[in-house]
Amino acid sequence: MRKIREIAIEKALLFSSLITIAVTVGIVSVLAFEAFRFFSEVSIIDFFTDTQWTPLFTDKHYGILPLLSGTLLTSFIAISVALPIGLSISIYLSEYAPKSFRKTVKPLLELLAAVPTVVYGFFALVVVTPFLQGIIPNLSGFNSLSAGIVMGIMIIPFVSSLSEDALHAVPTSLREASYGMGATKLQTAFKVAVPAASSGIIVSIILAISRAIGETMIVAVAAGQQPRLTLDPTVPVETITAYIVQVSLGDVQHDSIEYRTIFAAGITLFVFTFFLNTLSYRIRKKFQEKYE
Fold first, then answer.
1. Nearest in space to 291 (alpha carbons), one of 189, 198, 191, 203
2. Which tens digit of pLDDT belongs to each residue from 79-114?
3. What separation, in Å, do the N-terminal and C-terminal C-alpha atoms of the chain show?
4. Hey, CA dihedral for 170, 176, 181, 185, is it positive or negative?
């Protein structure tokens, strides 16, 4: 009977794994098939070189660069906010905070990741944007700056929690050796603990960037829906995810080339996130082999 239960559990776990693989293959297959149909009508060279994205206008252009620039701009602002704050929090919790404080604060910090992103989007629109307009008078009502800042707040738990776990895993003997050589706690934190945990910290940063690139509701609500090739954070922009939402919920006819643009944009986004996730896996594996 015990052997039968173990076999049943093994088969159930195998079935769950196969479902995950099947769903992934299905998503990639749909994206690839529809993107292939799109690129059979639109030149892939124009797709990556044209500086205008107006598939819903009379004068149609299918250059993905404006959407890419909006995506990368908001993601850069987000990681510029999340990286220093998240790393500071992780270093404090790991190296300075009492254990009781760490056990209390860390779960509370991770609650930020549980807040619905649409709430973050409205917070950016009705709180952060008016505040920034008091500092930057020419700031548009929809802009990438407020969307990026709030997105950075949202991904702080990704950086702080994963980085703190990496720092917490650093052997105590390394810290004690550093103290024995006369180093201060600050020197030990930044010259011993952080370098030893660098693989986990880098992975947390890459995963946070992937999360920022794939964010939808914050940029859809607060950044505007005006695709433009710009690095100016004070004007409205549109990201890949916001465009997909716009077309999916609009009146665009299904099976038209305008509708298939969301699959071309989607597979571009998939390639970006897949590359970043693969990079994080390679970095983690490289450091694991180095210290084994």
1. 198
2. 999 999 999 999 898 888 888 888 888 888 877 778
3. 40
4. positive
Q: Which pTM was predicted?
A: 0.86
Side-chain half-sphere exposure of 250, counting CA atoms within 13 A: 13
Q: Render pLDDT for 163-200 as a digit per residue (tens, 0 to 9).
A: 888 888 888 888 888 888 888 888 888 888 888 888 88
φ, ψ (nearest 5 deg) of residue 260: -70, -10
Measured in whole angstroms, the distance separating CA 53 from the mean position of its chain's CA atoms is: 23
Alpha helices in the chain (DSSP H): 2-39, 44-49, 65-91, 99-110, 117-123, 129-135, 144-168, 172-180, 185-188, 194-196, 198-213, 217-222, 240-248, 257-291
The C-alpha atoms of residue 164 and residue 167 are separated, in whole angstroms, by 5
Contact present, 60 and 77 (Cβ < 8 Å): no
Angle among Cα 208, 209, 212 to the nearest 5 degrees reads: 90
- When divided into structural domains, the chain yields a total of 2
Q: What is the CATH number of the domain that holds 202?
A: 1.10.3720.10
Q: Are residues 20 and 80 in the same domain?
A: no
Crossing angle for the helix pair 257-291 and 198-213, nearest 10 degrees?
A: 170
Instruction: Compute CA 9 distance to the chain's CA centroid, rounded to the nearest angstrom.
Output: 34
DSSP 128: I
Contact (CB, 8 A) for 95 and 83: no
Beta carbons of 177 and 155 less than 8 angstroms apart: no
The total number of residues written for the chain in this structure = 292
Report if residue 56 sits inside a domain. Answer: no
Same structural domain, 110 and 209 = yes
3-class state of residue 108 by DSSP? helix
